[in-house]
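Human: If only I could read backbone structure tokens as easily as an amino acid sequence. Underneath my words sits a plain record pairing an amino acid chain with its backbone structure tokens. Take your time, and here it is.
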Amino acid sequence: MSFLAGKKIAILGDRDGIPGPAIEECVKSAGAEVVFSTTECFV
């Protein structure tokens, strides 16, 4: 069982790093529920 199983996750991805949808797929495969996901540009 994953330590993320059953948890609710908010994701802030980085445009020049790892985008939100990529993190979202990893988190979902670990059994967590994504409640918010976005990709922002941090300058």
Observations:
- The CA atoms of residues 6 and 31 lie 6 Å apart.
- The first strand starts at residue 8 and ends at 14.
